[in-house]
Description:
Order of helices and strands: HEEHEEEEEHEHHEEHEHEHEEEEEEEEH
Mean pLDDT: 76
Low-confidence stretches: 1-28, 50-108, 435-471
Bound molecules: zinc ion
Radius of gyration: 23 Å
Number of helices: 9
Strand content: 15-25%
CATH class of the largest domain: Alpha Beta
Structural class: alpha/beta
Number of strands: 20
CATH superfamily of the largest domain: Zn peptidases
Strand order of the largest sheet: 10-11-13-20-18
Distance between the termini: 17 Å
Helix content: 10-25%
Largest sheet: 5 strands, mixed, barrel
Amino acid sequence: MVDARSGSDASVESSVTVSARAGSVAAGKAEPLPKAQNIDLEDPVPAPDQPPVAIGEPLLPQTETPASVVPPASVAADPGVASGSGQPVAEPQAPEGADGAALQVTQDAAVPPLVILGKEVESGTSARLSWVPAQSFEGIFSATPVMIVHGSRPGPVLCLTAAVHGDELNGIETVRRVLYGLDASRLSGTVIGVPIVNLQGFHRSSRYLADRRDLNRFFPGDPNGSLASRIAHSFFEEVVRHCSALVDLHTGSYHRTNMPQVRADLHHPEVLELSRGFGATVMLHSDGAVGTLRRAATEAGVPAVTLEAGGSMLLDEKSVNHSFQAIQSLLHHLEMVSKFSLWGQPEPVFYKSSWQRAPVGGVIFSSVKLGDTVTRGELLGTITNPITNVRTELFSNYTGRILGMALNQFVQPGFAAYHIGIQAPPEDLLAESAGSAGANEPLPVDEESDSSSSSSYEMPEEDPVEAPLED
Length: 471
Ligand SMILES: [Zn+2]
């Protein structure tokens, strides 16, 4: 069964890869790439007279179709592949938007078109393309929306990715706000936004892929590996390699919530520089687990950080607002936009951190809130055994700040309940991490560190049929 599946996957993959690659490589060849239609991202997606390209639609307002609106572009470079999906997509060669040309904005000839996903995106324009993972069960493809704003002036290519874990919603909304707030004619460089990388998980409100693997353990991927590895490879090659910097948006996991914070491997000078751009955002040094998007991207020469905010399965506006402002600040820091007045230029605050775990199981109620400053010996919360009625108080081992914490819930013994940050200048953090690990435990189960350092009780309720960390 495994053989059969991988066999069919391989054949499908080759056709898709060839067609997609042909797009990337053919820039200098005779056959021109289809031009991506310039769209105004502010315009609503028209009610389709054909089935929608992808599930991007729930994010976008559905209204009556103004005559001037251009339908979303699609990346089905190979019509044969598209028809095989059972979900027809728009023909890229036959742009329907009669007024598409009218939307053309002044463009600087000095900025060449962005060639990506089998399309050419002209400078000074915006486009809504799709990334089609090369691998999917039974050849059913889910096209993942990729929004692009290609500025009229030269500059970096900043990529924003969200929902690599399919149940982490704040980043989806953050990416939408950032992308829809950009003006291509005034942007220096390019912003590529992928609001939902893990569509499989998103559809199921799950952190994981359909095979219960954590996609954020498989970057940069392997075209001949597991399903997760193939999806990771496709995304990495088709999208990530176009980026000159990347911000991967995440939230806490398993009923934990995080104060907005950037996680970055500060050993990399480019990453350290990038991390300074997020305004008054907490900064946490961590290498990042092997296979995470940010680590793989950084190792491939694309400096990357994770932006954490809030918890999974929740859309909280406070977290979204902070993330939005942090990325606006970054756009200014990277000199991609000129004016930014939401925040002054507040400095980030750097932290090292430790987790405090529940010593016993039971119902946890916290006495502290996210962002609170606590002193050593201060009461963090209580855990009450619902059967024996024994109540245990949990006191802080550190003086620091609550960067992440469990929501009130039933916890098992050992559950990572409070993530406490201890302020330090970045130089000290690097010096410490270069030496022994000290008393600091490695970051457990969070956005990205998942349960590699934790016991099985921190796995999701849906018992994985196989270890999600093993390929
Ligand atoms: Zn995550």
